Amino acid sequence: MNKDIEIKSALEMLITEVEPLSPVSLNLMDTLGYVLAEDIFSPLNIPPFDRSPLDGFAIRACDTVKATKDEPVTFKIIDFAAAGKPSKMVLGPYQAIRIMTGAKIPNGADLVVPFEETEFTEEWVKVFKTYNSNSNISFMGEDIKEGQKVLTKGEVINPPEIGILASVGKNKVLVYDRPKIAILTTGDELVDIDKPLEEGKILNSNSYTIAALVKRSGGVPYILPHCPDNLEKITNEITSALQWADILITTGGVSVGDKDYVMESFKKVCDKFLFWKVKMKPGTPLTAAKYRNKLMIGLSGNPAAAFITFEIFVKPVIKKLRGLEKVYPLQVESTLLSNFTKVRKQNRYVRAITYYDGGKFYTKLPDSHSSGVISSLAKVNSLLFIPAGMGPFTKGQKITVELLESEDLLP
Ligand SMILES: Nc1nc2c(c(=O)[nH]1)N[C@H]1C(S)=C(S)[C@@H](COP(=O)(O)OP(=O)(O)OC[C@H]3O[C@@H](n4cnc5c(N)ncnc54)[C@H](O)[C@@H]3O)O[C@H]1N2
Ligand code: MOO
Predict the structure, then answer these.
(1) In CA terms, which of 112, 252, 255, 271 is 20 to 30 Å from 147?
(2) Which domains are present in the chain?
(3) Under 8 Å CB-to-CB from 112, ≥6 apart: which residues?
């Protein structure tokens, strides 16, 4: 059995075991946050015709050659063109068509003079300077050309991409399906948050933290009813969840206690056992196995350990399943604003609060780093990796932190 393995090995093992999920075709408005499973080519020019970017008058540039401030050239207004209502007239010498922003440039015209640069009545318009041909015209295809690739497979669909997809008429889009993540908390001590607490029991917070982390990572969380410390029950729950879920995550029951049955259940259910225990704190007893193409990942029950190991090990897996190529977090250099004196023999991930100010990142560390303490997770948005034996760290020192919510900023 792979036991006490390096963080990097665990991560590589997990990542190489999964592939992006099968693509599905979704209605455009349902694709927000999904990852494109196809390159998008525009079937049309945008704009689809030469159009005016201004409100003014469409005229011929050659007719303005003699125009000056003192001796303006006068044009006869022969028609009106608005966005969606093109003029059918063909513009002749010294004729003008009153034109609105977004309207098609009339035949014969090669220039739009904005209202502000003219004097006009309903019948005529005066122009006071010479203009170059093709001034103030947005040309057909100058934004997007017919056949041009506008978006690339693997890109996340955010509001700008929704707009681009709409511009090229994509009402159905091929995206990678979102992974369905079954969340199973285990432990005789756990009570649902809406039930009264009895002696020795605690409220089940992990289901909610993990579900929220899954959502933030772009997966779809399914919280299963929590399971007591019972090998058969845990095994049955896992077996049935793996029928429909893409990944199963458990919390609790992965250590060496008399009632820690999760690893045993994994072994019963899996085709391939991957590892148990990773050389890091918190969350050492992390365990993983595979059934068909589905991963089971057992996190420590300690709330902060579950949070941190999710971010380090589960999030990249979810991102890969979603079709993303960049699955690891953004690392930035930051200045430490706290002292951290504990030097440990184990690798550690320490919860951190990082902010950006005046062009630099700064990082504060909360007071408690115990894996059973949840209160100091408040505002945590980054992690500081401390390799075994390294430290102490002092205020003002430069450190590297991993940002937990910075997907859009990855280069
Ligand atoms: N003799 C040893 N004991 C322990 C070792 C060890 O090496 N030798 N490792 C410790 C480490 S490190 C960790 S981490 C924990 C992991 O234990 P489990 O993953 O089996 O987790 P549990 O014992 O089930 O729970 C730990 C802790 O977290 C609370 N918990 C569990 N589930 C939830 C939940 N859904 N919501 C909120 N809190 C939860 C649970 O009540 C425990 O207090 O093992 C050490 N022991
Ligand atoms: O590995 Mo554990 O989460 O530190 O108590």
Answers:
(1) 112
(2) 3-21+178-321 (3.40.980.10), 25-46+142-176 (3.90.105.10), 56-127 (2.170.190.11), 330-409 (2.40.340.10)
(3) 52, 53, 54, 56, 57, 58, 59, 99, 105, 135, 136, 137
